[in-house]
Design brief:
Nucleotide Exchange Factor Grpe, Chain A, domain 2, rod-shaped, alpha+beta, three-stranded mixed sheet, 4 helices
């Protein structure tokens, strides 16, 4: 191969290398340009970021305002409920006191009639010497009184003698030995006893007879 041919080949190689380097530089510039374009497209401007932050702050402030209003409403409702509960308790206490205070109203109203009868009997006794009439009037008042208490209030009188001694209904105040008795027996009523709706509220005071041993 001659010198001219070698020189031509060398020059041709140099040209090809230059073209390749040029192509590499162009490709690199294009890639960098595209990358910069993508970065610029993906990034928001400072003004856009500021607007987004302002919107978020406004939204949070609005949410805070709503929560504060809800808390205030719940607090007001709680205070109202507490006040209503306290008033209800006071009303119940007043009603209870009133109920206790006037619990015997019906009983007193039932007794007013016999009391009036006693007053009339006393007035009649002052104007008359008829003792038998006064006695009969008082007995009628007593009968009426017992009838009212038994019918309306369940009162029963314990006043029978010659019945077996019952410690639940009788209180033995006196004792005596009696021939022929097989069990303890009420021989004399000293004071009447009373039961209310079947429950003894005052035992009768009695004299008890015991059989001779």
């Amino acid at each position: 191969m001659g010198l001219n041919t070698q020189q031509n080949n060398w020059e041709r190689n140099m040209e090809e290398n230059k073209d390749k380097e040029k192509d590499k530089e162009e490709i690199t510039e294009e890639v960098v340009a595209e990358t910069l374009d993508e970065d610029e497209a993906g990034q928001e401007t400072p003004d856009a970021c500021a607007d987004s932050d302002q919107d978020m702050i406004a939204s949070l402030q609005e949410e805070k305002k709503k929560l504060e209003e809800e808390v205030a409403s719940l607090k007001d409702r709680m205070l109202r409920n507490a006040a209503e509960t306290e008033n209800y308790k006071k009303r119940l206490q007043r009603d209870k006191e009133e109920a206790v205070k006037y619990a015997n109203t019906a009983l007193v109203k039932d007794l007013i009639g016999p009391i009036d009868d006693f007053s009339r009997a006393l007035d009649a006794a002052e104007k008359s010497d008829n003792f038998d009439a006064l006695k009969e009037g008082v007995r009628m008042i007593e009968d009426r009184l017992y009838t009212i208490l038994k019918t309306n209030w369940g009162l029963e009188v314990i006043d029978q003698d010659n019945v077996p001694f019952n410690p639940d209904e009788h209180e033995a105040c006196l004792m005596e030995e009696v021939d022929g008795l097989k069990e303890d027996t009420v021989t004399m009523m000293l004071q009447k006893g009373y039961k209310l709706n079947g429950r003894v509220i005052r035992p009768a005071k009695v004299k008890v007879g015991k059989g001779r041993s």
